[in-house]
Specification:
By secondary structure, this protein is α/β, with parallel strands linked by helices. Strands 1-3-2 form a 3-stranded antiparallel sheet, with helices on one face. It has a 3-stranded parallel sheet with strand order 4-5-6, sandwiched between helices. It folds into 2 domains: about 50 residues, no CATH class; about 90 residues, HAD superfamily/HAD-like (Rossmann fold, 3-Layer(aba) Sandwich), CATH 3.40.50. It is built from 5 helices and 6 strands; from the N terminus they run βαββαβαβαβα.
Amino acid sequence: SYYIDDTAIGYDILKEVEKRIGEVCKDAVVIYSIDETHDIGLIDILPRIATKIDALEYLREKLGFVKKEVIYSGDSGNDILPLTCGYRAIVVRNAIQDIKDKVIEIAKEKEIKDKIYIAKGKKNLNGYYVSGILEGLIHYNIIDDI
């Protein structure tokens, strides 16, 4: 990862890095995330075939699942691509608001907003971490209400 001290300009830097990398390498993807613990931005440059989407697709195909049988959950910038690639998705409550907003924005553009669930905390669940995953599984009728 490359570090960005000022997270307020992280997405601007991401766009510039994407532009520059794109000029020299079409087979790379640039991912931005935030380390909330240390309040720093992280830029990762990966081969296009080494993203979480590729890993997810590989496992899905290897295990013989169809896309509608998979649910992806995440909370950070490096989860944006798989959260918005068309699987049912759960964004847990501990995700920062920028991530939630970006996921919703992309989902609207791709017309897949119905496949995104943003955990809020309901009943006995606070929506954070695994609690958010459970909340999402209830939302998608995978498990019964707790």
